[in-house]
Amino acid sequence: MVDFVKQEASLSEEDRLVLESVRKFETGEFEYIDEHWIEGNFTDIISEPGEMGFYAPNLDGHGSPNISETAHGLLMQDLEACDSGLRLIASVQDAFKTYPIYAFGSEGQKDRRPRKLGSGQAVGCFGLTEPECGPNPTVLETAYTSEGTHEIHTLILGEDLTGITAYQ
Question: Domains in the chain, ordered, with CATH?
Answer without folding.
Answer: 12-122 (1.10.540.10), 123-168 (no CATH)
